[in-house]
Amino acid sequence: MIMFEHRLLLFATPRQIGILDWRPGHMHWLGEFPASAEGLAAFRKIVVKHARLPMLLVADTVDEDYRSEVLPHVQGHARDELLARKLKQVFRNTRFTGAWRQARETAGRRDDRYLLAALPDAEWLTPWLSVLHSERVPLAGITPLALAYQHLLEKLREQSSHTLLACRLNNGLRLSYYHNGLLRFSRLIGGDTPTQLPGNAADEIAKTQLYLSGQRILPREARLHVLLLDPTGQLDSAQAQLNADPAFSTRLVDMPSLARALRIPDDFLAATPEVAPLAAIAGEVLKLNLAPPELLQPHTEFRWRRGLHAAAGIVAVLGLGLTATYWLHARDLDDQARQLAQQYQQFDSRYQAIARTFPTQAMAPEQLIQTVSLARQLDSAQTDVAALLATIGQSLLAAPDITLDSLNWTEESPVSSGEVRVSLDAGLTPFDGNYRAAMQRIEGFMHTLQAMPGVQDVSLRSSPVNADSSSTLSGKTLNADVADAPAARFSLSLLYREARR
Amino acid sequence: MTRPPLAVLKLPLLLLLAALLLAAGGLLWGQREAKEAETALQHQQTALNQARQQLDRSRQQQQLIATHLADYQAVVARGFVGTEDRLAWIEAVQLANRDAGLYGLNYRLMPRTASPPTLAQGLPLGQTRMELTLPLLVETDLTRFLDALKTRAPGVVRVQGCRLSHPDNASFEAANRPHLQAECDLLWFTVATATEGHHE
């Protein structure tokens, strides 16, 4: 995982220390400082200037030790304790030790396979570390150069199972063995050795192969793939000698290929070949850390501070972002409200313009319409008195022995269906006392009325005689020739549906 | 990652706290702003809808007024709207009686009452009953009188009912003397105006 951060990478050897200022996509070589009082003072100046940056120290020394161990699979605090015991057991009182859990066995108890590493004699590191400690520099860790070369192999997309990287740097030849891309062993042959002779480099590689086979680190039947990396080109001639041996296959890594793989300028790499392993490990998570915990305390504080700062920044940015979103939303709503207010003003002014045209009447326009409508309704549907009288008159013409005493009509309601209730009081003249005949004549008159247009529901309200069983009936019979016989009076009721005009 | 002493992290923690407070304050403020703006927008939307409805209604009213104003002014001129003009009504029945060539009449005007709600339809409609008693020579005198009254009536009047009778129950005589009597109930309708209502 690439850590997108700005950091310093320190390339430390017993003779000197180099500093690379690195951040993603950009790096700057700050210089090399010899292990002397002047070099230490200059180093301190650089450190003070960059004291707030995390730093990673890559150690390149002859005195380094690697051991592969298979340990039971445990986790958490138990693993820490197990590894601490194991490191103490293997490397005794060595200060700079570390363990890297590389893989888990696929068979048996499925134990964990570790690479234990140490810098047995690292007194030469003390002055540099003292400077870092005194300036409370956040030291991220101390790691061997061989681990940096492992990331270099990844960058070179080297995928052989058994790889031996032979790299010549600072007059030293480092031979590192990687199994399936993971560091298993490394050794540095110092600059005073005869590796300056190409033939000797091939010999050292052959010896290393024998050693790895002897230690059962490298299977005997395995063919070792050798990568030759030398900015000075002194290893080029060793390639032919190695290729002659069927136990080896070789690949010579030239500087342009390396620069492309690391994405750094050719001239920059050619001028400072030390940056190659540093650039390879710069953005990677540190897998093997040899620094004791007390040296890492400032870095722990740095990470906490950075985490809290990042959290504060994220919270602030999120808060500001959401606040800005709400604010923009509110402004958008305000704009909409303003537009609506303008529309409201337009509607209102139009309404006012229309309202000014209204006549200054005492009532609302709806009531005005209603008033007109009501007046029309009341004006219409008046009873046609002439038609009513004509209807009654025609009926009376058909019954000459009936004399009308009174005629009364009443409109049920001004909004009725046009029916009027008509009551008429009349008498039969002459009347000879024969009520049966009188009733027949009255019924005949009622039939006549019922037959007239517009007349309906003709009923007898009162008859000349009340023959009801519940009432008293008295009278006297008369002769037919009695001249002053009383009239037989009766009342009728009917409904007349008048013709509306 | 082991935790460093709290004192070392005092400033970053304060920064984080400040950021939290800032973010919370900003959020609350922003939410309140947005809510207030939303409420204002809703109010404005409601006001706009009301204004739109008012405008639509006023347009309809304008059209209705344009259509019916002349008719309204006519019914106002007739005396249907406003205070009742009893003298004009009495004059009208007198003139109608004279126009019909009848023999005089008796009238009686009752106090004005409110019309039934089914008829008034929400308007301040009032009705005044006028009872008329008039002698007639023949029944058609009544129709002639009512036709004349319709012509002379200054307001809106309806004949609610009439009764024709022989008051003296006398036999027919070939003399020019009325022997019929008509009793009619008339209803004079008037719509009270707002100003009239206040005066009352």
Series of secondary-structure elements of chain A, N-terminal to C-terminal: EEEHEEHEEHEHEEEHEHEHHHHHHEEHEE
Our measurement of the CA-to-CA distance between the termini of chain A, rounded to an integer number of angstroms, reads 102 Å
Total number of distinct structural domains of chain A: 3
What is the string of SSEs of chain B from the N terminus onward? Answer: HHEEHEHEEH
Biggest chain-to-chain interface with counts: A-B, 76 and 82 residues
- Stated plainly, the CATH topology of the largest domain in chain B is called Alpha-Beta Plaits
Structural class of chain B: alpha+beta
- The Rg value of chain A, from CA coordinates, equals 62 Å
What's the quick description here?
The complex is a heterodimer of chains A (501) and B (200). Chain A is α+β, with helices and mostly antiparallel strands. Chain A has helices at 37-49, 76-91, 126-134, 145-155, 198-214, 238-243, 255-262, 266-271, 275-282, 293-356, 365-379, 385-397, 435-451; strands at residues 7-12, 16-23, 26-34, 55-59, 65-71, 96-104, 112-119, 139-144, 162-169, 172-179, 182-189, 224-229, 248-253, 402-411, 419-428, 455-462, 488-497.
